[in-house]
Design brief:
The complex is a heterodimer of chains A (105) and B (604). Chain A has 105 residues and is mainly alpha-helical. Chain A has helices at 10-24, 30-45, 49-61, 67-79, 84-100. In chain B, helix 21 (476-488) packs antiparallel against helix 22 (500-531), helix 22 (500-531) packs antiparallel against helix 25 (568-583) and helix 24 runs antiparallel to helix 25. Classes of the chains: A mainly alpha (105), B mainly alpha (604).
Amino acid sequence: MHKKLKPLSEVDYWQIKKYSRSAFENIGSESYRQRLVYKLLNTARVNNQSDFFSFLLRTLNSKKGDENVRKLCRKLEWVYPLNPENFEKVAYSIIIGIMAAGKGE
Amino acid sequence: MNFEFKEESGLEFTGNWFIDSGVLGFVRLLEDIYGIELQEIREIARRKEILYFGLFPFAYICSEINRKATAHSRVPKDLINEFRFELLNSDWESGEEIFEFTWNNYVTRAAMKVWVERKLESVLFKKNGVDELPSDLKDSVTSIKKDADELEKKLVEKHADDLNKILGHRSKRFKSDDIAKILSVTDDDLREFPEDLSYSFKEYRDCLLNLMGLFEEKWKRDVVGKERVPEALDLFYRLPIDNKFYKNFLFFQYSAAHQKQKESLLDIISFRVEDLEVLKKVDKTINKFLTSYKKAENTYYAPLTSRHLKSFSEYLFVYLISFDRAFEFFNRMGYVLFYSNDLDITYRVNRKLRIRKSKIEDQSVLLRVTWQEIIDSLIELKSEWALENMYIIKYRDVNSQTQRFVDVEYIGISKMHAAILLDDVIRENINHTLQVGKSEYVWLLEHLIQNKPLKPVVMRHLVMRASGRTGQMSIKPLIYALAIDSEVFSGLKACVFEDPLEISPRMEEVVFRIKEAYGEMNTARRNVTELIPRGTRENTLNHLMSILRRNNRYLFVNTLLKILMQENEAFHRLKNYLFNRILQNDETWDIYAAALLTGFLGGR
């Protein structure tokens, strides 16, 4: 039996997007983020949850101490694991967040 | 049961399509004969007696006469105008007085020529035609007929070829159709023929004219302006009218003599329920669409007698006998009537359909033209409530035996659609024909009224555009169509019962929301067009389109994000649209995505 999955609301997606944006303000360079986004897009496209999180968490781990990173991790801890439908929404929320980060200046 | 009409004139629809068709037929009848429009008829209707006891009977008989008449015997326009002028500019005491005046002085004059023609025919071509004549005519007619018969024989034997040129056929005798032709031949026409023929022909024609003169004189002496025709000749002076729809109904009966015709018309107008058997019940006798009162008794739980209807509609039978006038004959389709429960809109649409009659050839064109007229009338009248109940009624032919309905089609527009159509901006923008195939075009407005989603049409059109197979360039109609789709086909929770008080505010809201959606879509589209380089747009358009057609939301976002990685500015402008309208939007994301695609096309 699968564990009953948590229902996600619009607010959750919005938070995930916001947290990823602020978390990635301080991570890596512009080109680093761009490479990451490419990798994430590819994993999201084939709905590969384990690879997606593996790439994402490896990056986040390098900045463990950051307050914003911690918020994002807590949020992810709460939503994980995800069914395919929710995963895609979460994944794209994160990707949009990352792309939005650091480009506003 | 008392029924309060909204107009003082009482000339309004009742809500029963059957009676309403009669009302429309009544209006059309007056329009055809006098050339007056609905508004004018309504004004005259304030003087009810003049309308129902004067204008109506004259118009009715005129239209019946014209149906039977040849080019010579149609009721002359001058007579009609003279009658109308005299009727409207005199003072009258009662309906009966008006009717007497109308019948004695004008109906009789209008009917004279057709009557004379029929008598002439019967004398010339019926075996005992002469014997039926009154004694004072018999002798003179017999002698003229003798001459005519000799001349006819001579003409037919000696000049068969030349007669063929004049009459268009060869035969041993003249036929009744030939009379009109013979009378229309002028002396000039005869010059090209041999003198012998021309002489005999003229003489034959003179015989005809002589006979007609005799009859005319007789009619003028006994009928025109007289209160009663001589009793012995009552049947002789019968008006030669006949209608296969009302076969045998009162004055249409062959045995109904002149006096009876006059009386029964008055009975119908004044609705004398008690005196007249026929008027007591409303059944097949008056209209073929009704069941028979006697034969199919079990169709009635309670027999419907016209007494009950009298307070409902004061001139019920006037409308009932005008019923057949409401329909218009269209080639290949039969008799057609557009019906909605508002007289104004029904009248306008039907009149416009009649004007465009020649263009209407089959079903699809009829519907399209009808829609155009409905929309025009809708804009003029803003008569929103009538739009919910609209029908197209069709029947093939109606005579005393058959009643063949071909089709009754419901074409009502919902309140929401009416609200959308009443908005000028939206209507103008979707009043647009999109090319969707090599020679296939779709009219967006029609599609919307028929409650079909517009997005598939837009998608098909986008495919045409992407492959450069259409010259159409405009963008606005596309975006409006998508905006309407996103609001009309989504978000409305499926409640069976809804608080009626909340419905109309929601209707108004829908127009507002459509405009908002349009604004958002249009901004996104412009951002795409302006911020993404042309080359990138053209390269990815087909790919994105095929993803959208496969309905793959995440792949669509995925691909789009890859493009936007290179385009900082564009990404920042579009990210909220992507996030809120596509990613988060489970119901209508495809519509918003399609709107985004229009940006890839460029164009105005």
